[in-house]
Write a structure and sequence with these properties.
The chain contains 9 helices and 8 strands. The chain has helices at residues 25-35, 49-61, 78-88, 104-121, 138-147, 158-164, 172-182, 208-228, 258-275, and strands spanning 2-9, 39-43, 65-70, 93-95, 125-128, 153-155, 185-190, 232-238. The protein has an 8-stranded parallel barrel, surrounded by 6 helices. Helix 1 (25-35) links the parallel strand 1 and strand 2 (39-43). Helix 1 packs across helix 2, helix 3 (78-88) packs parallel to helix 4 and helix 8 (208-228) crosses helix 9. The chain is globular.
Length: 280
């Protein structure tokens, strides 16, 4: 059986809207569960291990599955996070590797070491498409995928839209490059970017061409995942970050309600999944 599991992010919930108020962790978890999310990503770059342990009982009380997002600064430091993820019952660890060799030949053993470490501990790893990490550049990441067949991705395509400054509409060549990423992606993250902004407001008229582009990519990615997987959970994380990811006005007030937007993305993605055949 195949299931779509939609998560949000603890980082996105601290704060969750324009008020700037950071709610207590028990209230955050209750809101997330009541809204219909299946889990929540715990970002160890935005918080720390102490926060992860603090939020864990509240997530368990609400039936939310934790996903661990790691930012290892050394090759060996990922090991502790993998053990923690195993203890938490996380489906995998999303790696945003801070070990960043310049040469491709030096990157390959880093990725292979992390994959081997994950296999030994028994927790899968996926490598997020993200700026300021080992997968910073789209072209280099595609070369890594060619060199390392077992390397699987978590597709947050917003980073590559900004990093490559893709013109709209994208060329067939550039769309093909993104398709190559999607074909190796085992999970996905929900945020809409443009060539100059990492996180756009979903309902602004001038942003609709980018919204449509990302919805098309999410459909492509989910369809490809289904073609490769006869069973298992496909995880989609709605990750709408607070300022400075979120744009603000002259008074520092966010220009949209991210909590409402996260739920909009959740409904979009579930509708796409159902249109592709749903669970089963």
């Amino acid at each position: 059986m195949r299931r779509l599991q939609v998560y949000t992010s603890l980082w996105a919930m601290q704060p969750h809207d324009q008020t700037g108020v950071k709610l207590p962790l028990d209230q955050v978890c209750a809101m997330v569960a009541e809204a219909g999310f299946d889990g929540m990503a715990i970002d160890l770059g935005a918080s720390d291990v102490a926060v992860a342990h603090a939020v864990r009982p509240h997530m368990e009380a609400q039936g939310l599955t934790p996903l661990i997002v790691a930012f290892p600064k050394t090759t060996q430091s990922l090991e502790d996070t993998l053990h923690m993820a195993a203890d938490f019952g996380a489906p995998f660890v999303d790696v945003i590797g801070q070990v960043m060799p310049i040469a491709l030949d030096d990157m390959v053993p880093v990725i292979e070491t992390w994959i081997g470490m994950a296999e030994r501990i028994g927790v899968p790893v996926q490598f997020e498409t993200h700026r300021n990490c080992i997968t910073n550049d789209l072209y280099t990441t595609l070369q890594l995928l060619d060199r390392i067949p077992q390397m699987q991705m978590c597709a947050d395509l917003s980073h590559y839209v900004v990093d490559r400054e893709f013109w709209f509409p994208l060329s067939n060549h550039d769309m093909g490059l993104i398709s190559r990423i999607l074909q190796r992606s085992d999970s996905f993250q929900g945020r809409v970017a443009s060539r100059q902004q990492i996180q756009l407001q979903l309902d602004f008229p001038q942003h609709q061409k980018w919204v449509d582009l990302f919805k098309g990519w999410w459909r492509e990615g989910l369809a490809d995942w289904r073609a490769r997987n006869a069973s298992g959970d496909c995880i989609f994380v709605c990750e709408l970050g607070p300022p400075e990811y979120a744009m603000t006005d002259a008074q520092g007030r966010e220009m949209s309600n991210r909590w409402e937007e996260a739920q909009v993305i959740m409904h979009w993605v579930r509708a796409i999944w159902d249109d592709l055949g749903g669970n089963g």
